[in-house]
Design brief:
The protein is an alpha+beta fold. The chain has 15 helices and 21 strands. Helix content is 33%, strand content 21%.
Amino acid sequence: MADRRVDAKPPGPRAAHKRIAVIGGGWAGLAAAVEATRRGHAVTLFEMAAQLGGRARSVAVDGLMLDNGQHILIGAYSATLALMRTVGIDPEHVLERLPLTLVGPDGIGLRLPRGAPTLAFVRGVLSHRGWRLRDRLGLLAAATGWMMRGFRCDARLSVAGLTAGLGIAVRHELIEPLCVAALNTPAHEASATVFLRVLKDALFSGPGSADLLLPRAGLSQLLPDPAAAWLAQRGAELRLSRRVARLARLSNETWGTRGTWGTWSVDDEPFDQVVLATTSVEAARLTETISPEWSLSASALCFEPIVTVYLQADGARLPEPMLALPADNAIAPAQFVFDRGRLGGHDGVLAFVVSGAAPWVERGVPATVLATEQQARQRLNLQAGSTLRELRSFTEKRATFRCTPGLPRPSSFIAPGLQAAADYVDGPYPATLEGAIRSALQAVAALDAD
């Protein structure tokens, strides 16, 4: 039998263009719009806000451009980096690439040297000055076990359960900060399965996969603004400040007339196919009569908030662009602080990130800001008389879904010709930019397969 070979070529214009609606202009919606346009389809994007970017965008505050949250990328985020290149952004120019560094204000912590990530992890752990040798060897033994098991574990296991045998210092100074940074869920509630998947991709995806990629430009400059320009240049229509009220499938009599499984109506405007890239709350509303089971799955998700507190500390310059901070729910809210002056921003602007912030959201913004200011003075060695003032605080009450063990997440398929794209859609990643973008690529590919 002859060998049948199909050349892998990037999708180009198709003989039969489809009219695709993308509902939602966050990173997932933008990724879906770019991919559908790249495949030759006519795209209309609907976004209820006046600005694209969703939970990862820049906001003007008193003459400064501040992001509505801090996002850490890693070298393994291949889909995100590829999308940035597609819309004309060179990641090496807008992202600060650093070997994985998780240190405190005293300079003690985990530092991975450059090179192959697995070997770098071993070297970094062995050279950690703050852990006992027994704890370092215990971590390496546990990591070897995870690798031998293919980074798989019982789906019911929490991160705290997975790492219960590690030393207290390792758990408090490495596992818990990594868990809350990646999953935005406390270790005792977070899914060990998802946590191991993130570790696997970071440590076993090749050179540079574990590197931290810290934004040196505003989040809007990383993707939303360039993607909007890219789409407009290629004829896509962007409708901002437009909340979709109704999504409906047209009657059976119209099915097949445009070469698709069915024709959809978005606020009484016909489209061949739809990518739903909204929040889970909006998606549940729009699909309530279309697919009640999917709508119920989306509405059942629980969420974790994130608070970002921007403080102006005149003359302050941190020893690293990002530092880990000892945090607790009593007096110290933030787990991380970013020196925006060292990342291309204004000198003295510090961004404190409070992940898993439900206890602090309940106390209110003033109490959180005050506690963050006290934490800054105590941990960053700021003088009692030095100027320290709040610039702005952002509270995302539904920042990410609560990534718990065995969590059933909504599938990307809703109905023929209707796909979901979002960081909460079922997949291997937690609620990250990479997860959102991969879900969008999957959604558009599935629509083309129709």
